[in-house]
Amino acid sequence: MLSLAAVPPASATTAPAATTEEQRLDRAAPQEILRSSGFDTVAPEFARALERAHSYGEAKRVVVRQGEALWRRAVDRAQGRGPAGELSRDDDRPLYWARLGMTRELRQWEPARFGVSEARQRLLIRALEDASRGHDSISYPKKDAAGHRLKRILVTGFDPFTLDRDVRISNPSGASALALDGTVIETADGPARVETAVFPVRWDDFAEGTVERTLRAHLPRVDLFTTISQGRAGRFDIERTNGAWRGGFPDNENLSRTETVPVADPASQPQWTSTTLPYKEIVGAQTGRFPVYDNTSVTEIPAGQSAPVVRPDGPTAGSTAREGGGGNYLSNEIAYRATLLRDRLGLHDRLPGGHVHTPILQFGAGNTDPATGKITDPEFVRNRLDIIAQVRKILTTAMDARR
User: Fold this and answer.
1) Span between the terminal Cα atoms of the chain, in Å
2) How confident is the model at residue 100 (pLDDT cuts 50, 70, 90)?
3) Which region holds residue 74: left if phi is over 0, alpha if psi is between -120 and 50, else beta?
4) Contact between 119 and 186 (Cβ < 8 Å)
5) Computed from CA positions of residues 275, 281, 282, 284, in that sequence, does the dihedral angle turn out positive or negative?
6) Which residues touch 391 (CB under 8 Å, ≥6 apart)?
7) Among 68, 157, 207, 257, which has the highest number of CB atoms less than 10 A from its own CB?
8) pLDDT tens-digit map of 14-58
9) pTM of the model
10) Strand partners, 154
11) Residues 6+ apart with CB under 8 A from 346
12) How far is CA 172 from CA 129, 179, 249, in A?
């Protein structure tokens, strides 16, 4: 069993250019996750490649190429290809921490042969983020190897979060994205190709349009999509309604935002969007060991009033959103943004799409204290594997319901 006991103490110094998220890299658990998965070589190799660049254009090619390689390596590892190290293959955390190692190297990089302005550095960091999250690699072949026409499913997951509470945390939605990317699911209507992407837990990235930028070109071409995040203990939820409100819970940069979800063309922005996933069929199917609920509850300020009210059966006419079924954090926001984009593209009546909340991924008994606990345990792995398998079954059920 992997333990933190053999890990040396974190360095007392942190480079001032590192973000809040990147500063957590020097803690014991992230270092052990990287080392025990073999991903501890990613950031040093990236730094050496950057030093060999002779121009900004060459540096950008290095950034994109190595970002894509990290995503592919993480997907391959999750799907049984290539070396795994000591950690179980279903673990999403090596990708998260290795990416932060790369962004920290890029942020601190000072090329000797040419200059890089702050604006260009930001563009390089965005290119690295997009490439290493699968945002640039979503692609659907028309047919499989046997010549069968492929249906198309698009799935998104999230990075780990609440890392100051427990830096060991994994996110089963991100793990599901890695396990499913590029795979084919057999449905009643034939084979369906799944493509995935992972998103940051950062308010500002969402305000800058990362969700819309990634999904816009693909939604008109897919047969089903779902955003996925980690939700409540012991259950899946199909979130019926999403709200246009940010509730202020701190993100991975420890930043809070309490405001209406900022989107393009706010004058036409609705307070609520709704799922078009076949929630009745999903809830009624046997998809795995965790129960699945049709979650209809929201929190609203009713028209003409000023105090928030919980509505178990969804919003009332003219109300103002304070929480969707999935709350008012970034899980609700990605669901709101994706379904609003669906509707603005004129796809509401023909494209099934919405949000799935997975159970919280929990460590096993005796391993719940982050100060003394190990980075993994058998129950932790079993829970994550069961969640991934149930996500796959939920997607299959949703596709079967389209017939």
Assistant:
1) 46
2) very high
3) alpha
4) no
5) positive
6) 155, 172, 176, 180, 228, 356, 358
7) 157
8) 344 899 999 999 999 999 999 999 999 999 999 999 999 999 999
9) 0.94
10) 195, 225
11) none
12) 20, 10, 20
